[in-house]
Amino acid sequence: MTDVIFSFLDFVQKISCAQCIPCRIGTKRMQEVLSEILAGSIDEDGERLLRLLAEDIGYSSKCDLGRLAGKSVDTCQENCVSL
Ligand code: SF4
Description:
Blueprint: H1 2-15, H2 21-38, H3 44-60, H4 64-79
Helix pairs in contact: 1-2, 1-4, 2-3, 2-4, 3-4
């Protein structure tokens, strides 16, 4: 599931219009943290950072693209075993 979310964030960054920072920069930062998860080198601080980023991006992005990016990571972090 982490791979799917990582690819989705890649897609979001490609079509992001760059009008707001949560989507434009926040999704990139979430991807960096997900890379650490995929590499098996995440710690509690990293997990906490990912949760905060996902919540913030999910609520503060200007349109549904950024909101969906944040909420998909937030939902997956709550419900997926391996994220
Ligand atoms: S959330 Fe919407 S408005 Fe903000 S950068 Fe992404 S595409 Fe643009």
